[in-house]
Specification:
The complex is a heterodimer of chains A (about 260) and B (about 575). With about 260 residues, chain A is α/β, with parallel strands linked by helices. Chain A is built from eleven helices and eleven strands. With about 575 residues, chain B is mainly alpha-helical. The chains are: A alpha/beta (about 260), B mainly alpha (about 575). At the A-B interface, helix 3 and helix 4 of A face helix 1, helix 4 and helix 5 of B.
């Protein structure tokens, strides 16, 4: 018993040689990452690097061509229902039921995750209040702005108290107040033991929130280290530009800059 | 909180899914405009009436042999009646999922949206199949089941057991129909992931629909020719129908296919009950059961694959060939707008459909023997083809800004000359229509080599109608703009009024271009002269309307933008 108590918990997420091919095109190649439980993990890369494909494989939305995924020490596959109940996802493309109102969508989502009916009502009220969407809770999602849709997707992903949360560009389109509140909430959630896997192009936020950052380019992992290691040698932005080989040109668009 | 057990979770999820379906159907109804609601009501009313009539009709047809007055009906007639019932069921079985997919997309649950939830694909598939029993194409099937049940009341020497035995047969047939439709629908969704398959399938469907609508003409033509060849033999169309008891005996590959297909098995089961052959009935029940099982398994495998593939295929870097260029001495704005629109039309599903529809019809019309008189096709025949050409692509002309979406902002922000924008758009549509008509002319001359003279004036009539349709389009595009997605098989147009109006105006315009024909007949004025005059007049009026539309554009632009980027856009 004592031995069990002293054993470290299994990592929240572990991938081994994860790959995905689409015909001749390789979107993700031999990806090996480990995310400890309770970590705030940042997953960075330029557009088209394979971040969203990775998240889809990690959440069961896409079958890997090769390799394996383990979540909380168990093998994960698209039909692992029990494991899926421990996961929350805000995907890049928000697949919402447009004709439902925000409140109806939250009810539907929580019911699908098996949340008790009594809890659904209270939780949805609180989360709508937190997201500042109380006034528009009866409006159809089709009439929501992009930022508001993002908030609802996030709220739906949180309703069932997931232990591992995947966020693909959660801050894109959010107003300053909501973004700040969300940052605080995510920080609190990781302090309470939730593991968060985040992709974002806003490197300042990644720097502030994440305790571990990995970078991917053309489907391959190029670096992974705790945030302190990254920051000890400069800003995250400078590392990103250096690793991606996309440092700004010295004299860009001369025809524009030299215009009268 | 104690987590729910698996079976509790499944039943909670089923409840949520059914509620979701109910919400979607209610919202689909609520968000319609008053006009659309009325037209939906009317169309649903007609559908219900039609399916009930079909139920009564098919029931009557099936019951006929059992009626006392027709006890002596010949065996051939009886077999023909079975073929009729079989044909209707088979046709529905084949086409209904595609029709459903094209017309009722918003009522269908998007399974991809359900994937993140904790449901196994097998459970998802069960819900998927269960919900299929409540979807419109299934509801349309049930009256036919009722018809068969009703018809059994007229069977001679039918016992209660005999009639009760119909219920499992019908149940299994309904299951095969529903699951089979679901499977076909999923297969098409899988094919539709690729735009090329989607376009190919739509073209094939189009061909099938046109072919089906011209089938009676083909049959009539064949019969006439047969009659001419064997004049002394009394061969009436009825004889052709009664002398084809082919399908109940396996003779050819096609017959075997019909014999073992679900509708064929169902009709054989029905026949077995009618003749009190219970052993055959059991055999057919088992066959339908096997079909259900195979379809269910196939559909599960397919769905599993479908959901594990990305929504839009990723094929790596893709370079589109740019082989369309305009080398015309025109101002750059006109050229840019025209080139952009031509790319849009030729790279879109609806554009391609519109382009090939009329040429396809010309070939079919020739196949049906129309316009094949000794002196070649008449001028009015060519005029009908021209009218049909614009009728089938009128939605491109009356909503020129619809496909732009947010891109329309460029016209406002760039401060481009509205007249140049309209000229560019009209040039693109004009070139599109001219390319269509050139193709038609080529086909026409191959099919009717004697019709060279027809095209001297035919082209003028075409240009006259083109000017008329462009004028109509310029006005309607400003006054009644709407969202339009040229790459969706289902074209959602919220305002039915402009389409109705354009059809009416098109009829008037078609009347105008046939006016020279009338004047030529009355006053013997040369047709070429009359057509040239009309073409010039139409050209002048087009220019005047274009100038007016360009004047209106600046003040109407915000309204157009708002309309074509409406949130409930397709």
């Amino acid at each position: 018993m004592k031995l069990m108590d002293t054993m470290p918990p299994p990592p929240a997420l572990e991938t081994h040689a994860l790959s995905r091919h689409f015909g001749r095109f390789t979107a993700v190649k031999n990806l090996n990452i480990t995310v400890p439980t309770g970590a705030f993990f940042g997953f960075l890369g330029p557009n088209g690097a394979g971040k969203s494909t990775t998240i889809k494989m990690l959440t069961g939305l896409l079958t890997p061509s090769a390799g394996s995924v383990r979540i909380f020490g168990e093998n994960f596959h698209p039909q692992a229902v029990a494991l899926k109940r421990k996961i929350g996802v805000v995907p890049e493309k928000l697949h919402l039921f447009e004709q439902l109102s925000a409140r109806e969508y939250l009810h539907f989502s929580a019911t699908m995750y098996g949340v008790a009916k009594a809890d659904i009502t209270t939780r949805s009220e609180e989360i709508l209040h937190f997201m500042r969407l109380e006034d528009k809770q009866h409006q159809a999602l089709a009439d929501y702005s992009h930022g508001m849709r993002k908030k609802i997707a996030l709220a739906a992903a949180l309703m069932h108290q997931p232990r591992l949360l995947f966020l693909d560009e959660p801050f894109e389109g959010l107003d300053v107040v909501s973004a700040k509140a969300l940052q605080q909430l995510l920080k609190t959630l990781t302090q309470k033991g939730m593991t968060i896997f985040l992709t974002s192009h806003i490197l300042d936020i990644v720097e502030k929130l994440c305790d571990h950052v990995a970078m991917i380019q053309q489907g391959e992992l190029i670096a992974s280290a705790p945030i302190e290691t990254w920051l000890s040698k400069g800003s995250l932005e400078s590392h990103f530009l250096k690793h991606m080989g996309q440092e700004p040109l010295h004299s860009p668009l001369s025809w524009l800059t030299e215009a009268p | 909180m104690k987590p729910l057990k698996d079976h509790q979770l499944r039943s909670q999820q089923l409840g949520a899914l059914l509620r979701l379906q109910q919400y979607l159907m209610v919202r689909a109804w609520q968000k319609q405009h008053q006009l659309s609601r009325w037209s939906s009501l009317l169309s649903h009313g007609f559908s219900t009436l039609f399916s009930l009539l079909l139920a009564v009709g098919v029931g009557f047809v099936i019951a006929l042999p059992g009626m006392e007055t027709l006890q002596t009906a010949p065996d051939l007639l009886l077999r023909w009646l079975w073929i009729f019932a079989f044909g209707i069921l088979g046709f529905m079985w084949t086409l209904s999922p595609l029709l459903f997919l094209m017309k009722n997309e918003n009522l269908s649950l998007d399974l991809r949206k359900l994937l993140p939830f904790p449901m196994g694909v097998k459970t998802l598939h069960r819900y998927h199949c269960l919900l299929a029993f409540f979807e419109p194409w299934s509801l349309f099937f049930y009256p036919l089941g009722l018809a068969v049940l009703w018809s059994s009341a007229y069977w001679p020497e039918a016992t209660l057991v005999n009639r009760l035995a119909l219920v499992p047969l019908l149940g299994l047939w309904a299951m095969v129909h529903t699951l089979g439709n679901r499977l076909l629908q999923d297969m098409m969704l899988r094919l539709f992931q690729s735009r090329y398959w989607k376009e190919l399938l739509s073209l094939i469907l189009l061909f099938v629909v046109i072919f089906a609508s011209f089938a009676p003409a083909f049959v009539a033509e064949q019969l006439t020719q047969e009659k001419l060849r064997s004049a002394p033999i009394n061969l009436s169309p009825d004889m052709l129908l009664y002398s084809q008891p082919f399908w109940r005996v396996i003779e050819t590959g096609l017959n075997a296919l019909l014999y073992f297909s679900p509708p064929g098995i169902f009709v054989q089961g029905l026949w077995a009950l009618y003749e009190h052959q219970y052993l055959v009935w059991i055999q057919q029940l088992a066959s339908l059961g096997l079909w259900s099982f195979l379809i269910y398994q196939g559909s599960w495998k397919l769905l599993k694959g479908l959901l594990q593939e990305p929504e839009t295929p990723i094929t790596g870097p893709y370079k589109r060939k740019n082989n369309l260029n305009l080398h015309l001495p025109l101002p750059p704005v006109i050229q840019a707008v025209a080139l952009k629109d031509l790319h849009t039309y030729f790279r879109s599903l609806l554009g391609k459909l519109a382009f090939f529809l009329t040429p396809l019809m010309v070939i079919l019309l020739r196949g049906a023997g129309l316009g094949a008189q000794a002196g070649g096709p008449s001028f009015s025949y060519l005029l009908s083809i021209i009218g049909y050409l614009f009728l089938t692509s009128v939605y491109l002309y009356i909503n020129v800004f619809g496909p732009e979406g947010e891109g329309f902002k460029h016209y406002i922000l760039s401060g481009a000359d509205p007249r140049a924008i309209f000229l560019g758009k009209n040039l693109a549509l004009g070139l599109f229509a001219c390319a269509q008509f050139s193709l038609i002319s080529g086909i026409f001359l191959c099919l009717y080599p004697q019709s060279h003279a027809l095209f001297q004036t035919g082209w003028l009539s075409f240009l006259s109608l083109l000017f008329g349709v462009l004028s109509l389009g310029n006005l309607l595009s400003i006054r009644t703009p709407g969202p339009m997605n040229l790459n969706k098989s289902h074209y959602k147009q919220n305002n039915g009024t402009p389409i109705l109006l354009s059809f009416q105006v098109l009829m008037v315009l078609s009347g105008i271009i046939s006016l020279p024909l009338l004047l030529h007949a009355w006053f013997s004025t040369p047709l070429l002269l009359l057509n040239s005059t009309l073409c010039m007049l139409m050209g002048f009026s087009w220019y005047a309307i274009l100038t007016y539309a360009a004047q209106l554009f600046p003040q109407e632009a915000p309204f157009i933008l708002e309309s074509i980027t409406a949130k409930d856009a397709a």
